[in-house]
């Protein structure tokens, strides 16, 4: 599988470290309920199909990326810098 890094170009997935689903959002504040934190840390879906994932380009530019990938075929539909995705998410609040 090859991932097209926005900074380095197409690279083998061996240069990257996989973190997981990019969708979960950390509960805000120190007053988060223990059940909310448990759900955030431990409970994850395992979908068959398109999912947005976090990948770290460890052997390259050391950037965090959001990769949209089909879990059934490993086909990559898109790659974006995680910083840009986070800024767009914040702007859409």
TrEMBL record:
Q: Name one GO molecular function term.
A: sarcosine oxidase activity
Q: Which Gene Ontology BP terms does the record give?
A: tetrahydrofolate metabolic process
Q: Does the keyword Coiled coil apply?
A: no
Determine if rRNA-binding is one of this entry's keywords: no
Determine the domain of life of the protein's source: Bacteria
UniProt keyword list? Oxidoreductase
The name under which this protein is listed is: Sarcosine oxidase subunit delta
Q: Which organism is it from?
A: Methylobacterium dankookense
Q: What is the lineage of its organism?
A: Bacteria, Pseudomonadati, Pseudomonadota, Alphaproteobacteria, Hyphomicrobiales
């Amino acid at each position: 599988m090859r991932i097209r890094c926005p900074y380095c170009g197409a690279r083998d997935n061996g240069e990257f470290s996989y973190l997981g689903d990019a969708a979960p959002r950390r509960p805000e504040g120190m007053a988060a309920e223990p059940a909310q934190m448990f759900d955030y840390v431990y409970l994850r879906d395992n979908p068959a199909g398109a999912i947005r994932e976090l990948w770290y380009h460890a052997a390259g530019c050391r950037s965090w990326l959001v990769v949209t990938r089909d879990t059934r075929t490993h086909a990559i539909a898109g790659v974006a810098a995680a910083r840009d995705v986070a800024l767009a998410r914040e702007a859409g609040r």
